[in-house]
Amino acid sequence: MLATVMSFLDDHRAEIVDGGEEILVRRFTGTGSPRPKTDTATMARVRGYQPDPLVGSIVQGDVRIIALVDTLSAILPLTTADKVVVRGKELAIKAVDANTRRIGGTLIALEIQAGG
To answer: All domains of the chain, ordered by start, with CATH?
Structure first.
């Protein structure tokens, strides 16, 4: 089982490092203007949605982000109150899937739907 988890993690790292980019997960705290924020960098694969899966809460312009959790462990779980910054643009997190890219109970990566 451990070998399977390590293999799955290695595959995700390779895919994201080869075709991915650095993004920021932004968490706001407190109140006032401007609100204090903390940015945490991670590697991710950012893709748009094809027109055919534009159903339910997915709208044109939304992106699907597969983010490694290696550098995010201190701020997990992510919520819809958090934001992501992709290529300098702040996007709202609409949904976080912490189940699809989990193997044997070990979270490898998050699938994030973001837009805005």
So the answer is: 2-115 (2.40.10)
